[in-house]
Amino acid sequence: MVKMDQFLRAGVASTALLGLVACGGDKTAEVAQTPAADGLECVTIPEGLYVFENGKFSSTVSPQQPQAPEQVTRASAGWVGDVENAFSAAGYTWLGFVARENIGVVTGVAPDEDTKRRALEAATTAIMADPTGGTEINLVVDGISVAEGEPGPGVSVAALARGGISQDACQQALNETMEGQKIQFPTNRGDISPVSMGLLDAVAGISMLCDDFNVEIGSHTDSRGSDEYNLVLSQKRADAVKHYLEEKGVSTEQLTSVGYGESVPLDTADNAEAWGRNSRTEFKILRRP
Question: Taking every annotated instance into account, which residue ranges of this chain make up the domain OmpA-like (predicted)?
Fold first, then answer.
């Protein structure tokens, strides 16, 4: 048994304790006090940094408290490291860069939307100005999140680029990218709204990394309008997405566009909420025949 009077000193004592079990126990817990036979106290103290004053131990720092880094730790080598250094030189020390094949993803967490916009513009300029990046990177994807806001559309593209490529990994990346998101179209029209282009850039990046598989673009409408009208509208929208992805560098042979109209609803109710759920674009990773 370790008695408290063995390591207390006059005044305030500060010490780092690594999972010390002072009462003979075998696990750490909340500070527990147990009377000893001679009137002294023994304690069980979990890992952490403590101050003793006024007859009590108190924790000064939580050992599990995450500390947000002020900037990205630069571990990249070669031209990718040069690009990240260019980000820092431009004042964006919190930006990172992931490159695989001809896809580049700018990563990091911006304090607000305006800073994100300016950082992405500066990052894209730096990538294209690099002798290697300017020739090898065909698509720059926005993977910048906003603090206490939306994650960047390319967050899952960066994760896929860092890991292994498989059918499941590709489908998961697409599912995560589209989670809570929609490709926006004006009402009763087949042209893509500009607000969805960053999202589709992420889909293009995933498709290009997953070029051993086919990608089905499935467009769905709500139940308003005739079956024939909705079939035509959904096909126009699926074709518009396919054309956009092709322009970004996805192989035509890899893509299939299918308009399902209103035939595969997620919600069979006839109200605005159901209409919003049912009008959607889905992406499926398929093995090649």
Answer: 172-289
